[in-house]
Amino acid sequence: MEKFDKQIEKATQMSPKTKKWIANGISVFGLIITAIITIWAYQEGLLTDTQKMANFIGQFGLWGTLIFILIQISQTVIPIIPGALTCVAGVVIYGYAWGLLWNYVGIVIGCAILFKLAKRYGKGFVRLLVSDKTYNKYIGWLDEGDRYERFFIFMMIFPVSPADFLCALAALTKMTFKRYMTIIILTKPFSIFVYSYGLTKLIEIVYNFFVH
C-alpha cells in the first residue's frame, strides 16, 4: 500500500503537459482495446446474437458474473472503457432485470472506491481523471458550498454528464462518505436504466434499420 501511495503521489506531481499526454494515451489505449474487443465480438456473433453472448459468459459460471462486476468497477474508477458500452453489455448478457442489477452493483462499488481514492490523494488525483478543460469547467463548484450537493444530485440523475469525475470531485467537498453513498445509491438506478435500456433499444432500432 505504501508503494502504491508513493506512485500516486508521484503521478499527482506531474506537469500539466505530462498529465495531458498520459490522459490522451489512456484514452487512445482504451479506444484501441474497445475496438479490438468489439470487432472480435462482432465476428463471433456476440453483438448480434444475445444467446451467443449469454452462452459465452455462461461458460464461466459464477465467475462470469464476478468478472463482469469487476469490469464495471474498473471502468468507474479508471474510465478506459466507456461506461455506456458496459451497461449495454450487461443487458445483452443477462437480460434487463439481472443486467440492470449487475450494472448497478458494479458501478456503485466503483463509485465508493473512487470517492475514497480522491479523498485520500486530493486534487492531484482528480486532475488525472479528466482534461484540464473539464477540470477547470467544474472545479469552481467547490466554492459553492452546499450548492454542490444539489448540483451533484442533479448530475447523477442526468444520464449525460462526467459522472465519474464529479464523484471524485465530491470527495474534495465537505460531503461525508455516508451522504455521498446515499446519493449514489438513490440516483444511480435512473441513469443506469437510461444507459442500459435506452441505448440497447437504440442499437436494436439502428441494427434492424440497416439489416432488415
Radius of gyration using CA atoms only: 18 Å
Average pLDDT: 76
- Low-confidence segments, given as residue ranges, are none
Number of strands: 0
Distance between the termini: 54 Å
Write down the domain tally. 1
The amount of beta strand, in percent, is: under 5%
Q: SSE string, helix = H, strand = E?
A: HHHHHHHHH
Shape: globular
- Main beta sheet, described? none
Proportion in helices: over 70%
Number of helical regions: 9
Derived from helix and strand composition plus strand pairing, the structural class reads mainly alpha
Assembly state here? Answer: single chain
Structure description:
By secondary structure, the chain is an all-alpha fold. It has one domain (15-211). The protein contains 9 helices and no strands. Helix 1 packs across helix 5 and helix 4 crosses helix 5 (83-127). The longest helix has 45 residues, at 83-127. It is globular. It starts with a helix and ends with a helix. 26% of the residues are buried.
Write a compact overview of the structure shown.
With 212 residues, the chain is an all-alpha fold. The chain is built from 9 helices and no strands.
Topology, pairings included?
Elements: H1 2-12, H2 16-43, H3 50-58, H4 62-77, H5 83-127, H6 132-138, H7 147-157, H8 163-170, H9 177-211
Q: How would you describe this structure in keywords?
A:
212 residues; mainly alpha; 9 helices; 0% strand
